[in-house]
Design a protein that fits this description.
The structure holds two protein chains of two kinds.
Chain A: H1 2-17, E1 18-29, E2 32-33, E3 42-43, E4 46-64, E5 67-71, E6 76-80, E7 88-94, E8 101-106, H2 110-113, E9 129-130, E10 135-145, E11 154-160, E12 170-175, E13 182-187, H3 189-192, E14 202-203, H4 208-217
Parallel strand pairs in A: 1-13, 11-14
Antiparallel strand pairs in A: 1-2, 1-7, 3-4, 4-5, 4-6, 4-8, 4-10, 8-12, 9-10, 10-11
Chain B: H1 2-12, H2 42-52, H3 116-119, H4 121-125, H5 134-142, H6 145-155, H7 162-174, H8 182-188, H9 197-209, E1 224-225, H10 241-244, E2 253-254, H11 276-285, H12 305-316, H13 321-324
Antiparallel strand pairs in B: 1-2
Helix pairs in contact in B: 2-6, 2-7, 9-12
Classes of the chains: A mainly beta, B mainly alpha.
């Protein structure tokens, strides 16, 4: 009886001291919703079809001006265009927390990349860990476009690498306010904008190319705050 | 009343894996492996050992880790300069001897792998080795009752994930510690353990000519070096440069351990030397002065034939029969 009362009180107490706030990742392609295997999508007037879009978002923390006020634990999320459930999750925040910005990474930090086998969204079975040059693939975009001279006109961008000077992790900030979901608007057209797919259709290893493309990938977050 | 409480007891009692303590040999440096993320248990090691010897990890269920890493021959593949994997496909490198992995900071001849836990992903996915995908391995294991039991005993429930499978493999491999060779017994001052005059002379020569890279007690400094081998133009293997992209890493390869070297022929990253004599001849007069040649090897060693034989005699004292024939390391029979 005593245990039951204590348990009930704890639940009540928890209920009043924490708050769940959603993070929502919205995947777009220009004006439209981003979709896989959609033949009506266009790049430079020609048909482009995406077969895979997966990327990691990690290291979520909340700031009030320049002070960090909260950090997410086990902050690793694999966003998969094929899995809508992966595009939203809840942050367990203390009630009455004041914040105005959220900071996060596109990719996985170097320490985690050197820590061996991890689970959940970081499990190597997710196909986002390189076997032959240890480290996470931070961002993976694949599909077909007629101008690509590759087999099946495939383009494959596997952006990763954590070693200096080609570390590909990208840190961004967005505005955030209590009592509202935190939205991340990701527009993949911004990544392809300006890319000549006839020449640049494959990046599968760490290095300068991956580094340059990773910097470009920052642009997909249209509501990111400028530095 | 008794029956109900007994039932309650069995529901509440969670099987705990049996913890195993990792023993660092006397005077050895601390291991670099982070055991906190993967504490050793009897059940974890047993599971890892089962996986190590299981060809299910390969696409057509014919190649296991042990196919290229045999316990009796220092966990490497003797008599093969380049190992053959699935369907007799040939790779580009010689199989490395597995031992003392808790002290390794990098893995593979070019250091492409940065942590023991993720090393297995490389041979599992290589088209000339096991040609499989880790996702498929997990699916295959999920269909085998023996693994439901093994994972339950090691992890508390029978969920099979990439992380759990890899960590179990690590646990088994971490137990492959070789520290009881004649050399070790002499160093510890074990009663009755003495070098012969030849071995003693060889040890002194070793310390002068070899130990800067093949540092005691692991007999490797854990780094990479260009030891002056002429490049094999049929392979064009630039070693570490393939991983870092840096010109200064061209033709650099991992400094392997010399422990159990008697049993891990043929030698070098492409198995080009069948005998230790050939190795000594290379260092003696065969060093090619590549731009990235290790500073330590600027000059040929130019040792007399007797000295070379003495060094080899010393190297034979690094053989650890207890390690090689340890039943706990070999194929699990139950």
């Amino acid at each position: 009886m005593k245990t039951t009362v204590a348990l009930f009180c704890t639940i009540l107490l928890l209920g009043t001291t924490s708050l769940a706030q959603s993070v929502r990742v919205e995947l777009r392609y220009g004006e439209r919703e981003f979709s896989l295997k959609d033949s009506t999508t266009k790049h430079m007037g020609k048909e482009i079809q995406f077969s895979t879009l997966r990327f990691y978002l990690s290291g979520f923390s909340l700031f009030y001006n320049d002070s960090m006020v909260w950090q997410e634990t086990n902050s690793y999320h694999l966003i998969d265009a094929a899995q809508p459930e992966s595009q939203t999750w809840e942050l367990e925040l203390p009630k009455d927390l004041t914040y105005n910005t959220m900071r996060f990474n596109i990719g996985i930090d170097s320490t985690t990349s050197c820590s061996g086998a991890m689970g959940g969204d970081l499990d190597p079975t997710k196909g986002m860990f390189w076997s032959w040059n240890s480290g996470y693939i931070n961002f993976k975009l694949e599909g077909n476009y007629a101008d690509c001279p590759s087999r099946n006109h495939q383009f494959e961008y596997h952006l990763g690498g954590y070693a200096h000077p080609y570390a590909t992790l990208q840190q961004l900030m967005v505005a955030a306010a209590p009592d509202k979901p935190i939205d991340l608007h990701m527009d993949l057209a911004r990544f392809l904008n300006g890319l000549n797919l006839e020449k640049e259709y494959r990046v599968m290893s760490p290095g300068l190319k991956a580094f340059e493309m990773a910097v470009k990938s920052r642009e997909i977050c249209t509501n990111a705050l400028k530095k | 009343m008794v029956a109900v409480s007994l039932l309650g007891y069995s529901f509440n009692r969670k099987h705990q894996p049996t913890r195993v303590v990792f023993n660092t040999p006397l005077n050895w440096p601390k291991p670099v492996y982070n055991f906190k993320r993967n504490p050793l248990s009897k059940e974890g090691i047993a599971l890892g050992r089962k996986l190590f010897y299981d060809p299910t990890l390969s696409r057509n269920n014919t190649v296991s880790c042990a196919s290229c890493h045999l316990s009796f021959t220092a966990f490497t593949h003797v008599d093969h300069d380049l190992s053959h994997g699935i369907e007799d496909r040939i790779g580009t490198r010689n199989s490395l001897a597995l031992m003392n992995l808790a002290w390794s900071t990098s893995f593979m001849w070019d250091g492409a792998v940065n942590h023991l836990d993720v090393q297995a992903l490389a041979p599992i996915s290589h088209p000339a080795e096991m040609d499989e995908e880790i996702q498929h391995v997990v699916e295959k294991l999920q269909r085998l009752e023996e693994y439901h039991q093994g994972f339950k005993e090691a992890y508390g429930d029978s969920l099979i994930t990439g992380e759990r499978l890899l960590k179990a493999l690590s646990q088994f491999q971490l137990t492959l510690v070789s520290s009881n060779s004649k050399y070790d017994k002499v160093m510890r001052g074990d009663s009755g353990a003495h070098f012969t005059e030849q071995e003693e002379n060889g040890y002194e020569l070793f310390k002068t000519n070899c130990a800067s890279c093949h540092k005691e007690p692991l007999f490797t400094n854990g780094g990479f070096a260009n030891n002056g081998l002429p490049m094999d133009t049929s392979l064009n293997d630039k070693g570490r440069m393939h991983v870092t992209g840096k010109r200064r890493d061209s033709l650099l390869f991992k400094v392997p351990t010399l422990r159990n070297i008697e049993f891990s022929f043929p030698y070098m990253h492409d198995g080009r030397f069948k005998t230790l004599s050939e190795v000594m001849k290379h260092y003696n007069k065969g060093i090619v002065k590549h731009p990235t040649l290790s500073a330590e090897l600027k000059n040929d060693m130019e040792l007399s034939p007797n000295d070379r034989v003495d060094i080899i005699a010393f190297l034979l004292t690094l053989s650890d029969k207890e390690f090689l024939f340890n039943k706990e390391h070999s194929f699990p029979r139950n």
